[in-house]
Structure prediction request, 159 residues.
Amino acid sequence: MTDDAKFSITDIHILDICCKIEETCADLYRYFSKTYADSPQISALWEKTAKEEDSHAEHFRLAYRLQGRGIRSLKTDMNQANKTLTMVQGIYESVLKSPQTLKDALWFAIQLELLISEYHMNTLAAFDDKNLERLFSSMMNNDKDHISMLEKSYKELFE
Prediction:
């Protein structure tokens, strides 16, 4: 894409799916925050992670609003985006049906963040605009921070 290019309908739909993935993760973490509210430190960790997922969704909304300006191409296709969304929504629904212990919730979130981090690496666009590229790179760094924080909490509580 060039600076004046517009996203295709497919590109816009992919970005919408990416937003939904992030929002579903945020919903899951908010659910965990409420579920483990008796542990203020853990509840705050879940809430912080949920807010960062909301921020990631905003990154994708920004890309949508820019309509392709500063983005050369998306690195994912509709099938991969839909597959990831279906998986994340399925995870969320299964957690709602069968609540997790704190240990399982932390382990589960670590695995989810590893998966989402991999998805972000494969989904992020090829950028023409360096500032936009840095913004999306910060999202990947947040994923790494999420994993580190969750792993640290897991080790402190259960190892």
Q: What stands out?
A: The first helix runs from residue 9 to 35. The radius of gyration is 16 Å. The mean pLDDT is 87. The domain at 9-158 is CATH 1.20.1260.10 (Ferritin).
